[in-house]
Amino acid sequence: MSSSKTLIRTLIQNPTRIKSKSQAKQLHAQFIRTQSLSHTSASIVISIYTNLKLLHEALLLFKTLESPPVLAWKSVIRCFTDQSLFSRALASFVEMRASGRCPDHNVFPSVLKSCTMMMDLRLGESVHGCIVRLGMDCDLYTGNALMNMYAKLLGMGSKISVGKVFDEMPQRMSRLGSCCVATESVEPVMNCDEDLEAETCTMPLGIDSVRKVFEVIPRKDVVSYNTIIAGYAQSGMYEDALRLVREMGTTDIKPDAFTLSSVLPIFSEYVDVIKGKEIHGYAIRKGIDADVYIGSSLVDMYAKSARIEDSERVFSHLARRDSISWNSLVAGYVQNGRYNEALRLFRQMVTTKVRPGPVAFSSVIPACAHLATLRLGKQLHGYVLRGGFGSNIFISSSLVDMYSKCGNINAARKIFDRMNVHDEVSWTAIIMGYALHGHGHEAVSLFEEMKEQGVKPNKVAFVAVLTACSHVGLVDEAWGYFNSMTKVYGLNQELEHYAAVADLLGRAGKLEEAYDFISKMRVEPTGSVWSTLLSSCSVHKNLELAEKVSEKIFSIDSENMGAYVLMCNMYASNGRWKEMAKLRLKMRKKGLRKKPACSWIELKNKTHGFVSGDRSHPNMDRINEFLKPVMEQMEKEGYVADTSGVLHDVDEEHKRELLFGHSERLAVAFGIINTEPGTTIRVTKNIRICRDCHVAIKFISKITEREIIVRDNSRFHHFNRGSCSCLDYW
DNA sequence: GTAGGGTTAG
């Protein structure tokens, strides 16, 4: 008997000597056998259980206590937090306070973490009050946890309104990590005060609180610095973040992997690859360059600096890759326009058994949008739904965009309508979708609806609405929107907005006005702004202005292929063969070659490409066999080949043949002969659809009774029953 | 008690 009492005493004095579940249970049994299980000893056993993460055993014993001591409460609360049972941790804390027990500094870090994960700012603040009253705000761990809470719950976004903090809760939730899912009650306690409704602060709300806590902590450690640096970095206060990193250099606290991976995104944002490389070098010297966090930050930093090869190299040297490392490179490919590689890597990621999370989908779906591959886009959509990410606002916005860019505006609208909340990005995606499909009026009314619902349009939204106006010729409306940017929304017009207005004026035939507008822009016009006017000059057959405009283009960009081709076309259609020849000679001297026009169509899991005039396609005979009678029928119905756009200096008969071989016509024909009657044909083209093909496809849609959708590089054309959705305004 | 990747844009 006495020997077992000695044993108990030794174990109680050194509880860490108990390393296994069976040892803990033996100790518990000894207490029961010797009838010495007091409140204090029970608390010690509970703390031993919780240290071994034996929540169930701890709770069984805990429930037998009538008035549990602080040690028992603390252990249970910490264990709940460790197991991601945040709401139960908080409930226990509240209960402990109600029972009159006074918390000590050991319990606050867990409680604050639970408040953070539950996004319960109200409770967190009252805990803070309690901490101050107990004079525990000097405690290092408590202070660090407090800073983290304020940074997470108040510190996101550079300018944030209090009302918005609460609106964004579902998104913030996903950002806090997947462990939220493990709690029993995901519903955050939201006590939104009326007076907190929509006050916009110019400074992120939380960072001020973070700084106050930081200043109170008397002795700071590397975690304190990392927490406040991350807070500044994520609030867009980059200079303050970097200032603190430098300040660390004056102490004996040295930047570690956490510090670096908070700082690297700043240099991504600044596109400062020199500083980024310095950090990379520091990481190598410290021997932490293989860290997964640093690795993905480096991949991202190099990708954002257009050095995707360096991203690939960092990625290939990573010892371990998690889903974020993979996704950083997938996203990097997308950001650099390497869409096929993005899709390839995404596939590789999946075959490597790394489960793509929500972020991976919102990175890769835009690749489908750019490639206009409805087939892959639909597959990803299915994958998204199976993964349970259907209500993620980032993913939904990218799906809206994907469906509209792949030609299915109705599917885009359906997804948009099913979203619970719309932010400026999702609104912009659907508005741009209608704009590209030529439904300018619908786009404009959606823009108005967005404003009515209190969502402030950003600069991209203005690009979308101006594009919508431009595609249907809403000149007055466009001016209104253009001017409201500065007057109502405090947004500066940027190149894209000027370009959209210039495009609008040009399309509307107000060529001189467009010329003046571009000449007086407050931003230096680029070659592409002038190029849109040049194509308007071509559409409205104004050769004189076109020559002026092309000179402007060549003075900015002497190798602008599009301008050469358009000018050649215009000279050709005016019979000015000499000028055309001169221009072509210039092109040849510069070694410029015309980008081949090509079109592609997806059929049965395969993409079929057609290059203008290329007769090598294995189905060429069948295509011609199909086109011949259709062309004859077209001519009976009044089709006359418009050969004015044909560049080549050849006779009329030959020109007709050349038009015959245009890539979009081949792709449409191929689609029709390889699908069931009535199937919609979707064709994508790399440059603007040709004028004659536009007429021809209208006839083809009528004769074959097919809906034909052609996406060129600027918009969609829906051909149906002999007419096009653009109503020939393009 | 701390860190990394994401949606809309001629």
Overview of this protein structure:
Among the domains are: 374-565, Tetratricopeptide repeat domain (Serine Threonine Protein Phosphatase 5, Tetratricopeptide repeat); 599-724, no CATH class. The protein is mainly alpha-helical. It has a 6-stranded mixed sheet, with helices on one face. A two-stranded antiparallel ribbon has the order 1-2. The chain contains 38 helices and 8 strands. It starts with a helix and ends in a 6-residue tail after the last strand. The protein binds one DNA strand of 10 nucleotides through helix 7, helix 9, helix 13, helix 15 and helix 17.
Report the radius of gyration as a whole number of Å: 33 Å
- CATH class division of one domain: Mainly Alpha
Average pLDDT: 88
The CATH homologous superfamily of one domain? Tetratricopeptide repeat domain
Compute the number of helices: 38
CATH topology call of one domain:
Serine Threonine Protein Phosphatase 5, Tetratricopeptide repeat
The description of the largest β-sheet is: 6 strands, mixed
Strand content: under 5%
Fraction of residues in helix: 55-70%
Distance between the termini: 98 Å
CATH architecture identity of one domain: Alpha Horseshoe
**Oligomeric state:** single chain
User: Order of strands in the sheet with the most strands?
Assistant: 4-3-5-6-7-8
Rough shape?
A: elongated
Helix-strand makeup class: mainly alpha
Poorly predicted tracts of residues: 157-202
SS elements, strand count: 8
